[in-house]
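Hi there,

I know you've been waiting on this one. I reran it after we fixed the sequence typo, so this is the corrected version. Both the input and the resulting structure follow.
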Amino acid sequence: MKAVIVLVAVASLHCFVAQGLPEPVSSCKHNGQTYEIGEIIPYDSCNICKCGVYGIMCTLMACPDNSGRCYVNGKWYESGTSVPKADGCNTCLCQNGQLTICTKMACIHI
């Protein structure tokens, strides 16, 4: 069984290298918004997306039934409530288990 896993991993790596890397990007676009490299992109209550050099990268975990709530940074938020973003000055709205309508203010930390 281990040999099969190793062979699959090597074959996958070989295909990836043969095809080459995608072109690097300077920012990512999702749902009409632009995100800078390293910025977290709202997705759902149990997966995280991030803008990376080669585009948007997301985790793909199965989500438990959350009854419309949003799970962010280890805390649950009820649908219809404001959720603070990691930058400390912007917020998103929790709606039916997803973060939507986010503010995009410049943050000035003193």
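Quick highlight: The longest strand covers residues 91-95.

Best,
R. S.
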